[in-house]
Amino acid sequence: MADPVYSRRRVFHDETSTSLTQWETYMHRRKFIHAFTAGAGAVAMAGSLWQAAAADEAGPTASPYGPLLPVDGNSVALPQGFTSRIVARSLQSVGGITWHAAPDGGACFADGAGWVYVSNSELPLVGGVSAIRFNADASINSAYRILDGTNLNCAGGATPWNTWLSCEEIFRGRVYETDPYGLNDAVAHGAMGRFKHEAAACDPDRRVVYLTEDEDDGCLYRYTPAAWGDLSHGRLDVLCGTIDAVYWKEVPDPEPAVLETQTRHQVDEALHFDGGEGCHYSSGVCYFTAKGEHGVWAYNAVTNKLVSIYDGNGTLDGVDNITGTTAGDLYVAEDGGDMEINIITTDGVVAPVVRLDGQSESEITGPAFSPDGTRLYFSSQRGHSGDKAGTDGITYEVTGPFRH
Q1: How far apart are the C-alpha atoms of 138 and 158, rounded to whole Å?
Q2: Most distant pair of Cα atoms in the chain: their distance
Q3: How far is CA 196 from CA 157, 171, 236, 249, 355, in A?
Q4: d(Cα 199, Cα 56) in Å, to the nearest integer?
Q5: CA 350 from chain center: how many Å?
Q6: Across the chain, how many H-helices and E-strands are there?
Q7: At the topology level of CATH, where does 77-399 sit?
Q8: Cα 158 to Cα 105: distance, rounded to the nearest angstrom
Q9: DSSP string of 266-328?
Q10: At CA 319, angle to CA 315 and CA 325, rounded to 5?
Q11: What string of pLDDT tens digits covers the 404 residues of the chain?
């Protein structure tokens, strides 16, 4: 094993980073760190003001949606004004196909007046990706496969040109670029690295793709394609340095042979994270989770700073897939824990928005909002039975007054 896993517990800063978002956090009992300030450009904060903000303690972190009500008929607990429905079950028919087992990462894509939800299958050898096409009224139009014959397709990420990057969570796994509309064949992009891929997030401002790695000493990578919109060739870098000073360095061999040094151990200065999971980009900031650390990180690409925005002391546990809204809120799904999706608001509130009842042996996967922001899709990978093969997977839709 190369570098020890970098420990991020109780890391505090006296610098201020900035963002082009309206994302603001401040430190309180749930271990928030003031990381980004509102504004259209770079805003500096003096050290004394930083320390004053960091010293503040927040009161009870009530959800902006209110408390969760008792579970509904689908075993889902939601706030007032929200409703759920089941749109697919593993090994049962939906839209003309048999829905896959072990549903995992997902995303939504606009499709005329309707939309498409894609979902990975975290199965060995026959994983792949399925898609459900919805009409404008949210009724199901059809369903179809867009990738077959791949291994443990875990998470991934949507591209600005409306393709889905499906990531294999296996030793020397690949990233497959797929067509959510089912018109074009999937393509593997070896230049994006052969490692235990988890999630991907595209940064259209810098024209790069961030990639997480699900190893107990995994890394955060940045892929820069030779031409934006064509991921077939490019450069793979790894995040290096210390928490106080990060930089990127090229990975010498992104596609190492089986017995060669793997990507996460090729650069001595690389930072390591315990169990890289979800990844989400918004307005200059790449947010990513580390399950082994119960944490959520934020890399500010504008100021080249890395900070922790959540370290596990709160209602959110087993951090996994992550998504966000145009309002700046983050939604983080739990692998285990209380089987919740928690919101992290722009003012530092962490609170459950969804809880699944009687599914403690499962995990919540694939959270994604419909294009209009009114519907949240996600899956319970193993459902009520907890069957390791994922044959009891359930894919849900939650509708409500989401902030967007």
Answers
A1: 21
A2: 62
A3: 15, 5, 15, 19, 29
A4: 34
A5: 16
A6: 1, 28
A7: Neuraminidase (2.120.10)
A8: 11
A9: S-TTB--BSSEEEEEEETTEEEEEEGGGTEEEEEETTTTEEEEEE-S-SS--SEEEEEE-TTS
A10: 85
A11: 333 333 332 222 223 333 333 333 332 323 333 333 222 222 222 222 222 222 232 223 689 999 999 999 999 999 999 999 999 999 999 999 999 999 999 999 999 999 999 999 999 999 999 999 999 999 999 999 999 999 999 999 999 999 999 999 999 999 999 999 999 999 999 999 999 999 999 999 999 999 999 999 999 999 999 999 999 999 999 999 999 999 999 999 999 999 999 999 999 999 999 999 999 999 999 999 999 999 999 999 999 999 999 998 888 999 999 999 999 999 999 999 999 999 999 888 999 999 999 999 999 999 999 999 999 999 999 999 999 999 999 999 999 999 98
Residues in the chain, overall count: 404
Other CB atoms within 10 Å distance of the CB of residue 90: 26
Selection from 186, 169, 82 nearest residue 131 by Cα: 186
d(CA 40, CA 382): 43
Tell me the C-alpha distance between 325 and 329, whole Å: 6
User: Whole-model pTM?
Assistant: 0.88
As a whole number of angstroms, the distance between CA 158 and CA 385 comes to: 31
Which tokens sit at 11?
A: 């890391």
- Residue 186 and residue 130: Cα distance in Å, rounded? 12
Q: What are phi and psi of 217, to 5 degrees?
A: -135, 45
Q: In what order do the strands lie in the sheet with 208-213?
A: 197-203, 208-213, 220-227, 230-242, 245-250
- Give the pair of three-digit tokens for residue 56: 């503040």
Query: Domain coordinates of the chain in residue numbers?
Result: 77-399
